């Protein structure tokens, strides 16, 4: 959730970015003063790391629960830094022709999204493996789901019957009423202390946890 270009309330004006890591075990928060990591292994939100060396952090992505982190600052919005945050060292940096809008990574790849292109890097050496140019919209996003039904039908024999039935029903099986409206937020499903939880990080600076 990138809030760098959003107008937020005064109480959360310092918040620029928030996201969950790939397995939803930690929350990363970027702000005008730096960035922080919070553990989601227990119901109580626990800060596990804080960095104030880099200001105006508008993107911060952590690789699972490792020490590898990708950072973008508003002071250099075209520059990506990959760091080892526990050692406090910068592993490498990479500059692009346009502003970086989003960064995603897994154990093998690091993807950088610009306004009209995507760069796919090998995460081991940051070598560019693929470059994709696309006519993206500056105001809205589009998702194609036309073939999703065929994917479900093809994978029916591999999925538990309950999962297949849930996808085929196309309806909500649980709902949550948030204590706000109009705020930008991100959601994730995670298991905390062996209990399934719904996590909602909102632009007002709060993390909401539901059963």
| Rg over CA atoms | 19 Å
Helix content: under 10%
Number of helices: 2
Number of strands: 15
pLDDT averaged over residues: 83
> What structural class is derived from the secondary structure elements?
mainly beta
CATH topology of the largest domain: Methylamine Dehydrogenase, Chain H
Question: Helices and strands, in N-to-C order?
Answer: EEEEEEEEEEEEHHEEE
Largest sheet: 4 strands, antiparallel
CATH superfamily of the largest domain: YVTN repeat-like/Quinoprotein amine dehydrogenase
Description:
- Keywords: Repeat, WD repeat.
- This is Putative wd repeat domain phosphoinositide-interacting protein 2.
- InterPro entries: PROPPIN (IPR048720), WD40_repeat_dom_sf (IPR036322).
- It holds the Pfam family PROPPIN.
- The chain has helices at residues 148-154, 161-169, and strands at residues 15-20, 26-31, 34-39, 46-51, 57-62, 68-73, 76-84, 89-95, 102-105, 109-113, 117-122, 128-133, 185-192, 195-202, 207-210.
- It is mainly beta and 211 residues long.
- It has 2 domains: 10-142 and 176-210, YVTN repeat-like/Quinoprotein amine dehydrogenase (Methylamine Dehydrogenase, Chain H); 145-173, no CATH class.
- It has a 4-stranded antiparallel beta sheet with strand order 1-2-3-4, with no helix packed on it. The protein has a 4-stranded antiparallel beta sheet with strand order 5-6-7-8, with no helix packed on it. Strands 9-10-11-12 form a 4-stranded antiparallel beta sheet, with no helix packed on it.
- The radius of gyration is 19 Å and the shape is globular.
- The two termini are 22 Å apart.
- The model has no long low-confidence stretch (mean pLDDT 83).
């Amino acid at each position: 959730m990138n809030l760098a270009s959003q107008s937020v309330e005064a109480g959360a004006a310092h918040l620029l970015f928030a996201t969950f890591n790939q397995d939803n075990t930690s929350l990363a928060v970027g702000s005008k003063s730096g960035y922080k990591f919070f553990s989601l292994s227990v119901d109580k939100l626990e800060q596990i790391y804080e960095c104030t060396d880099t200001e105006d952090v508008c993107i911060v992505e952590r690789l699972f629960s490792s020490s590898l982190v990708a950072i973008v600052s508003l002071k250099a919005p075209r520059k990506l830094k990959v760091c080892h945050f526990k050692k406090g060292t910068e592993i490498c940096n990479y500059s692009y022709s346009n502003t970086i809008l989003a960064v995603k990574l897994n154990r093998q790849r690091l993807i950088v999204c610009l306004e009209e292109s995507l760069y796919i890097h090998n995460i081991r050496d940051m070598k560019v493996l693929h470059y994709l140019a696309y006519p993206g919209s500056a105001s809205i996003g589009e998702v194609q789901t036309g073939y999703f039904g065929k994917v479900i039908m093809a994978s029916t024999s591999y999925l538990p019957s309950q999962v297949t039935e849930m996808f085929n029903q196309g309806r909500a099986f649980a709902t949550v009423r948030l204590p706000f409206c109009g705020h930008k937020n991100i959601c994730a499903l995670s298991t905390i202390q062996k209990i399934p939880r719904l996590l909602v990080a909102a632009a007002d600076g709060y993390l909401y946890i539901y059963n």
